[in-house]
Amino acid sequence: MEFNPTRAVVHNEGCDLHYWYQGTGPLITFVPGGNGHGRQFNNMIAALSDKFTCATFDRRQMSASQAKVNKKLNPPQQARDICTIIQALGFDQTILFGSSSGGIFSFQFAHDFPDMVDHLISHEAPLTSLLPDASDVWEWFLHLIDVYETQGLEAAAAEFGAKLIGYDDEGIPPTVSPPPENPKNFWDNEFPILLGYTPNLSRLVENRTSVGVMRAVRCKDAFFARGVEDQARILKCPRMLVPGHHQGFEVETKEFLPCFLDMLEILEKKRSTSVY
């Protein structure tokens, strides 16, 4: 379908959250990661809105969703923001698709609002504390904070961006860049909190939350891709290797979409055949 969403604003905890939606049917909520802006999901929304109500948003302190005062990232608050948007749309439950730190916020949402989750698909959530080399990654993150504080955003972003494998592959279109205030908010207020933050995945298992995780083929052994294996093991959930890079859903939507639908089908079958 053509991308032609309805746009709206809902207020939550000191921030006007800008969101948009399109289509009819079960709700899919797309949760942005560290870049903060929802428009990376517009192609997915257009492709799926013939069968689903598709919604996304700019996260607080990012793009259009500006707070009066910027504060340090609060993952439970991010989950409450998601909840507020779902309720504003008039739904009691949603399918969640969260990419990168959006996957972390989706896990947090499932932890805090388990009854509101239909299915949850996490695409390369960087839960680095689960990695075998977690200590090395942690110290590299601390190094990046030092680079940011002493050399500035451009230097830190360049070193961090070198780990975003696959974006420069031949023939791959560029992603839509967020406005310049988003990276600043990310490094000022989000990155230091995300260093080792991990929602309680065991609680998702206890709640029998329907979860699937995805790893992008172009990312190879990037730290955020490798963590998917441990997530699948802990969550005892389906794992899928999907086309594209860390934002493949945005720029290789046609190739990515069948995997997304396959994962939903796998999760539906798993739930219907489970005996508790």
Automatic annotation (TrEMBL):
<dbReference type="GO" id="GO:0016787">
    <property type="term" value="F:hydrolase activity"/>
</dbReference>
<keyword id="KW-0378">Hydrolase</keyword>
<dbReference type="InterPro" id="IPR029058">
    <property type="entry name" value="AB_hydrolase_fold"/>
</dbReference>
<protein>
    <submittedName>
        <fullName>Alpha/Beta hydrolase protein</fullName>
    </submittedName>
</protein>
<dbReference type="Pfam" id="PF00561">
    <property type="entry name" value="Abhydrolase_1"/>
</dbReference>
<dbReference type="InterPro" id="IPR000073">
    <property type="entry name" value="AB_hydrolase_1"/>
</dbReference>
<feature type="domain" description="AB hydrolase-1">
    <location>
        <begin position="26"/>
        <end position="141"/>
    </location>
</feature>
